[in-house]
Amino acid sequence: MRIPYEYAIIQACPRIERGELINVGVMLYSQRLDFLAARTHLHEERLRCLDPEADVDAIAAALASWEATCTGAGAAAEMKPGERFRWLVAPRSTILRAGPVHMGLAADPSAELDRLLELLVR
Length: 122
Hints:
Helices cover 36% and strands 30% of the residues.
């Protein structure tokens, strides 16, 4: 049985003033299964094409914090998965941001998240 889910692409925009970005991860939320997870992949060479001076280590650490927030770590400990997802996809003007939220259907959200990472990020 396929279950509805929502997902958003995590984007890195190392120079906000230029508006250029690369996809660096995907978050997937399934309300019915109470599932929220993120998978990330930072392609350093592609990032450096947009900004040769980008702080790759800081961006990688920030990406790790997005993954941790999905699991309920830190300030998100008291939040439900849906609240965490909405918090992460809220518009922001930072180096990392979420793209628009999209919908889909899948039998296995974790496998679908892996598939989306391969398709949209790698």
